[in-house]
């Protein structure tokens, strides 16, 4: 009798299982899809717009190439011994005053102006359940800075946290800074250039009035000759020190969505916190026709001086960027 009951129970259980399996096939085409959707899959998390599996192996291969290029570039510009974790001292740590530490995610992020830094700060604030309103996103106190930690803690953080930053083609970044800060009449930046010109080339601004824009040629002259650059166009190397910090991930603005989606998985950022499908560019400074419109204003000599300037040339070398096709000259 007991054996018969066990047999009946087993048959009922099998029928229920097959019924559920049939429903999964009907609803999801394949039962494994249900498990991926509900239990999570590194290839599917955070892609709410297409539900297409991401090929993270391709992103990882690209990262290996970017990091190797950076290693070779650092050696080429004179860094014989990279990375400062073991030999980190207080004077070196002070340089890292722009680098954000996000303890909740065990992450270090170095924001570079004009490279989706606002979008990434907003995402990190949401991921850590902080206020992500405009005033907070643009505050200098969004996250603690690496330079504010005791030396031993800073060493531990550099050794154990995931480190990342994003870069872009230096030619388009220079133009983006000009359009965003000088064509849009950022008063502080305008006054900064006025002071520099009055000290170094007063004749250039002698007849300018408050309604006149600085031209792109004038801006490039300041960029080439000024010893102290505004962070919005400061060399990317000088902002994030990639020859001294061993970054785990180097994102590119040109592959922003894929790089960001991968990082969101890597940092275990909660579901529902996603990077926008499209980050609307404020200045369209990566577009070929926009680049050509402005760079064509430069005489050959100034264009050459810009291309061979230490900051732009070094950033291009370290991060693998060529001169955009639309502005190349023979």
TrEMBL record:
<protein>
    <recommendedName>
        <fullName>Carbohydrate sulfotransferase</fullName>
        <ecNumber>2.8.2.-</ecNumber>
    </recommendedName>
</protein>
<keyword id="KW-0325">Glycoprotein</keyword>
<dbReference type="GO" id="GO:0008146">
    <property type="term" value="F:sulfotransferase activity"/>
</dbReference>
<dbReference type="GO" id="GO:0016051">
    <property type="term" value="P:carbohydrate biosynthetic process"/>
</dbReference>
<keyword id="KW-1133">Transmembrane helix</keyword>
<dbReference type="GO" id="GO:0000139">
    <property type="term" value="C:Golgi membrane"/>
</dbReference>
<keyword id="KW-0119">Carbohydrate metabolism</keyword>
<dbReference type="Pfam" id="PF03567">
    <property type="entry name" value="Sulfotransfer_2"/>
</dbReference>
<keyword id="KW-0812">Transmembrane</keyword>
<keyword id="KW-0735">Signal-anchor</keyword>
<dbReference type="InterPro" id="IPR018011">
    <property type="entry name" value="Carb_sulfotrans_8-10"/>
</dbReference>
<keyword id="KW-0808">Transferase</keyword>
<keyword id="KW-0472">Membrane</keyword>
<dbReference type="InterPro" id="IPR027417">
    <property type="entry name" value="P-loop_NTPase"/>
</dbReference>
<dbReference type="InterPro" id="IPR005331">
    <property type="entry name" value="Sulfotransferase"/>
</dbReference>
<comment type="similarity">
    <text>Belongs to the sulfotransferase 2 family.</text>
</comment>
<keyword id="KW-0333">Golgi apparatus</keyword>
<feature type="transmembrane region" description="Helical">
    <location>
        <begin position="7"/>
        <end position="28"/>
    </location>
</feature>
């Amino acid at each position: 009798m007991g054996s018969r009951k066990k047999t009946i129970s087993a048959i009922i259980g099998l029928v229920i299982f097959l019924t559920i399996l049939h429903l999964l096939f009907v609803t999801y085409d394949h039962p494994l899809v249900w498990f991926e959707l509900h239990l999570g899959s590194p290839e599917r998390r955070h892609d709410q717009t297409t539900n297409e599996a991401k090929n993270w192996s391709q992103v990882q291969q690209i990262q290996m190439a970017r990091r190797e290029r950076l290693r070779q570039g650092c050696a080429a510009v004179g860094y014989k011994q990279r990375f400062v974790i073991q030999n980190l001292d207080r004077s070196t740590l002070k340089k890292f005053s722009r680098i954000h530490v996000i303890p909740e995610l065990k992450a270090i992020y170095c924001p570079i102006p004009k490279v989706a830094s606002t979008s990434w700060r907003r995402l990190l604030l949401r991921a850590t359940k902080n206020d992500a309103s405009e005033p907070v996103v643009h505050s200098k106190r969004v996250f603690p800075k690496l330079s504010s930690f005791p030396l031993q803690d800073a060493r531990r953080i550099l050794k154990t946290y995931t480190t990342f930053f994003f870069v872009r083609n230096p030619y388009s970044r220079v133009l983006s800074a000009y359009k965003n800060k000088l064509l849009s009449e950022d008063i502080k930046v305008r006054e900064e250039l006025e002071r520099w010109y009055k000290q170094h080339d007063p004749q250039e601004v002698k007849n300018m009035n408050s309604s006149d824009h600085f031209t792109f040629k004038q801006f490039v002259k300041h960029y080439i000759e000024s010893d102290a650059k505004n962070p919005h166009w400061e060399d990317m190397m000088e902002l994030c020190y990639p020859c001294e910090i061993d970054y785990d991930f180097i994102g590119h603005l040109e592959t922003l969505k894929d790089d960001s989606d991968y990082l969101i998985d890597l940092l275990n950022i909660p579901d529902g916190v996603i990077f926008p499908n499209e980050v609307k560019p404020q200045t369209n400074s990566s577009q070929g026709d926009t680049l050509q419109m402005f760079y064509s204003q430069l005489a050959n000599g100034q264009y050459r001086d810009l291309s061979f300037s230490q900051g732009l040339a070094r950033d291009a070398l370290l991060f693998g960027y060529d001169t955009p096709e639309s502005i190349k000259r023979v």
